Amino acid sequence: MPLMSEKKKAGKVATVFSWTLGVLACLWVAWCCAIGPLYWFGTGLSGFGWSNAAYMAIAFVISFAMLRALVRYGRGERVLPRYFARRHEKLRHEIAGTPTTVLGIMLRHLHDAAHSRPGRAIHAVIVWGGRKLTSCTDCWWKLMLVFVIGWLWVPTTLLAAFGADIRSQIREFSWVLNQWTGLKQPYIGFFSFVPMDIYPTAHYMWPANPTYLTDQHNVVLTVVYGAFAAVSRYLTDSNDAGIVVLAALQWLFAAFCCAATANRFFNLPWRRLGVGTFDFSHPERHDCWNMRDFTHPEAGVVARPSRLRAGAKTRFVILLFFMVCPLSVFATISLTKSPLFAFAFVWWFGVWYELHMTHIKALPTINGKPMKLRKRSLCALFASSCVMLISAKYAWYIILFAAVLALVNDRKRWKTYAVALLLPTVLIHGGLVYLVNSGAIIGGDPIESRGIQLQQIARVAKYNPQGIPEDAAKKLAPIFNLDQMAESYFQQDADPVKSSGIQSKKVSYKWRTVTEKDMDNFNDAWWQIVKANPQIALDAFFAECFGYFDVVDLPYVSMDYYVNNDYVQSDNEWIHLYNHKWRDQVAGFAKQWGNIPVIGWVTHGNLYVTLTLIIGAAEVVLRRWRSLSWHLPLLLLMGVMITAPANNFERHMLPVAFVFGFLCLQFWRESCAARIAADNVRRFGTCNA
Q1: CA triplet 93, 96, 101: central angle to 5 degrees?
Q2: What are the pLDDT digits (tens) for 513-545?
Q3: Dihedral pair phi/psi, residue 472, rounded to 5°
Q4: Which pTM value belongs to this model?
Q5: Residue 332 has what DSSP assignment?
Q6: 254 near 340, Cβ under 8 Å?
Q7: ∠ CA(245), CA(655), CA(143), 5° rounding?
Q8: 557: helix, coil or strand?
């Protein structure tokens, strides 16, 4: 008895803790929605009033209702109130005599002979379409064809999409190529301006031996992009052909990644699923099937909901998102690091689902050993990890974090995680660290990771310059020009404060003269300013990140920007001459769609980020720790968004948006078993009936 009481107490404590985390997630979403209007009109937290409080209360009620509904659904409990459930049953009886109505066709039994001829025809067309869609997406190469055909218009009519980053990378590689060929170029000097000064890297980080290759935009991508552009210049006297080829290759990579992951979630290819009849001589081959009625074998079998391959409706909705949503469509040819990382993350996420579904507790074997990861999946996990590492600097944090969780959760397959996660991290990240330390390349400036701190200092310098302590001003003087910081401050983006860019550069960051010793005083000066101006500091923090969790907030930079900006539409040799007006029309349509209230939310990444956070909170409440262990990288990605230099920058949300549909599918599958068990308890009084 004492042991039972202790277990009950521990269970209550765990319940309270999990619900507390869920409520905190809802409060965070509600808070971001409530403060959004304050920053739209530039008032800040000082303008928080009753209208914002009411807005916050409404947003909290909605998000908590969604959380509560997901938890009840996950437990197999009734989601809708009893009144609506009864009304639904009554409606079914009322339309029983009118099968020709659309609602009647939907609610009537599919094989009811009382259907009218039009109803049967519509139903037959829907069933035929569903079967064809399922058969056309039952393996990865068919899905690859679907993605290639569905996205074919993108590279053929838009050619490529890019911004300032790839131009900077091409310029950087050109300087390196000139150095390799013996051309003498300026290096450190007051009047020199080299590629490392565009997105400025402090001169104290430059090695004594001249080098022009940096890790600012990921050195591997810089070399690849620059090499393609160099070959293009050699053959065609312009970079444009190389840019188009790079966009086409990324488009193919995106189709492959999405097809591979969709195949894993739709078809569960690691399982031997039976089709048609049930073979009683080999029941072990059909652990995905249940008899409809053991007293009537002729009734056939049905797939277990927990092992069910995705149905036609699920496949249609997920594929529709990838084919129509501007986030995915424009990302396929957008030559910047975030889309490449996002598609590699989709591939990586799919392999994690296979690892999750073949875990020893999910799929036990006779000898008590977990199923080995398929060789192709092991190669996929290794390759996707490598692409993630070469496309985003923060990837090694995510991969290392996932590896630690995997080793704790699935220790018996530690060799898999060592080979596919730890090995590429050591090789690629360790190799980059070695190149930086050896002076072969210039590492990224640590100021890049201090966007929030810079915004807080700059906002105080703009709105309350007299509030900066004298000691803090002295410590910052060798690093920043506070007057220029105040002038260049923009609450949506920290790049102007960092003196990033080439157009009308304001020298707020003294990257030419700052020393490593000067940077030692930065954190102390920042903390003094924050303590003296807490409200302004909070304003700067929330202004830079609230949009990622406010579904009403329009993106600061949406993905259509890369389709028709000046770099694409004018500042090139011949790309701007190809379908110039069509690019404007496509980008304009996406922009107009995104500006429509509610309907346009599906085109914005913050909708999927917010819903993913709520689904994660539901998994915490349901205590699905094994599922949560491979979903936590999504939470780390949200942390990356918060610390990113810009607010509501859509390219940072691409990984979460791309895997959202698969996340919903997995949550539904895991909830089906609980729902069936709950139904059996209600009907028969036992879950084994």
Answers
A1: 120
A2: 999 999 999 999 999 999 999 999 999 999 999
A3: -65, -40
A4: 0.90
A5: T
A6: no
A7: 65
A8: strand
